[in-house]
Hints:
Strand 10 (227-231), helix 4 (239-245) and strand 11 form a beta-alpha-beta unit. The longest helix has 21 residues, at 145-165. This protein is 20% helix and 20% strand. The chain is of the alpha/beta class. It is globular. Strands 3-4-5-8-9-10-11-12-13 form a nine-stranded mixed beta sheet. Strands 1-2 form a two-stranded antiparallel ribbon.
Amino acid sequence: MSVKRVARVGGLGTIAVLAALSMLVGCGSGEDGGEGADSAPRPSGTTSVLPPKATPLAVELPPLHAGFDYQIGGAYPPPSGVRIVSRDRSESPAPGLYNICYVNAFQVQPGEEKQWPADLLLRDAQGEPVVDGDWDEVLLDIRTPAKRKRIAARVDQWIDGCADKGFDAVEPDNYDSYTRSQNLLTADDATAFITLLSAHAHSRHLAIAQKNTVELAGLRARTGLDFAVAEECGEYDECGAYAKAFDDRVVVIEYTDSGLRKARSGFGDRLSIVRRDVMVSTPGDEDYVRKTR
């Protein structure tokens, strides 16, 4: 899938919180080292503990338990009652709402492989690109500090575009790509890379979401992530883990009626929940589905 974003809005989120920017210790200090030495990430800044000399930057978090619509497949006028909307970075924000900018940060959009340096595409032992078969997307090679830094420089440009359009937050997709990497990538690689993106998002006064990847939700302090965008947490009984890690600051997308029922039965009075069709289509398409109950 893909991403974009809109003019900054105020007043609909909760009170401004402080997001600290550390000097990117972790994936940071080794980022300009050689391709060889990869090290486990050390803690970066968080929204609750300010490291010495860190400059606090105000970011606005999404409102709690608010109407939500997931529009990454194409923008359209938000339905009545919606206060949070997520759109692809190629779109513009919805006026007057809390806008999340979707960015495909860990994988390559289909057909865009040649836009990336060949050495930044993850390859198997035979030199073939490693592909996410569900979406036909080549994974990016985030195994070393130097490569993470180069990839982040490109993704940061997209984050800048989101900020310039006025989005309130960014949603970097495919944090869990390491689970589809044929064991070539690790969770440490993923957390080191997302920490780079978090720092840059905060420098542009954008909140940043953890997209899925429930097994890493407990590392929120290390990675600097502010809230969660969770697909099918009702279907897979994961909403509670996200709610605990992010203090109920969670927007949920379910793709089945059963998933919607489960999410609502356990967390309908706490989280922002919507049911969409799996292709996240637009009104008028025969596959379009949007439900909140």
